[in-house]
Amino acid sequence: MSTVTPHARFRTAVEGGDIEGALACLADDVVFHSPAVHRPYKGRESVGGLLRCVFDTFEDFRYTDELHAEDGSAILVFRARVQDRDVEGIDLLRFAADGQIADFTVMVRPASGLMALLQEMGPKVEAAGVKPADD
Predict the structure, then answer these.
(1) d(CA 31, CA 57)
(2) What 3-state class would DSSP assign to 88?
(3) 26, 47 in Cβ contact below 8 A?
(4) Quick check: is 38 in a domain?
(5) SnoaL-like domain spans which residues (predicted)?
């Protein structure tokens, strides 16, 4: 009998367009490191608001590869489109003991794709009232 891993649960939700399922994978005190700002976003509510904006921004999003570490963390490699730019990136997921995502880092390339992402995401994030942590 196989057990669904925490990263597989998250990947399945994201690939299925199930934002609620993806958010259910986040720890209450999750920390999200954005490719756009130097301060992290903290907490399920803040990170959830940010991920809702991401779901609304990326087009043709798909994971292409997975890498796993002995400590249970995972890297999910993705490709997507933002405006007329193709982007590639990684979701680095670190998990709490209960299997929830405790730390989530995103990296995006190329720079022109990141700039397109910032242009699209900025107004959405502002409208949602999502802000990075103050500390």
Answers:
(1) 21
(2) strand
(3) yes
(4) yes
(5) 9-103
**pLDDT tens per residue, range 52-77:** 999 999 999 999 999 999 988 999 99
Take residue 14 and report the two structure tokens written for it: 């994201």
Q: Which residue has the tokens 């002995």?
A: 70
The total number of structural domains in the chain stands at 1
Please state whether the predicted TM-score (pTM) of the whole model is above 0.85: yes
**Collapsed DSSP state (helix, strand, coil) of residue 50:** helix
* Residue 26 to residue 112: CA distance in whole angstroms: 29
Paired strand residues for 33: 105
Residue count of the chain: 135
- Whether residue 112 lies inside any domain: the answer is yes
Q: For 116, phi and psi rounded to 5 degrees?
A: -65, -40
Strand (E) or helix (H) holding 81? strand 74-82
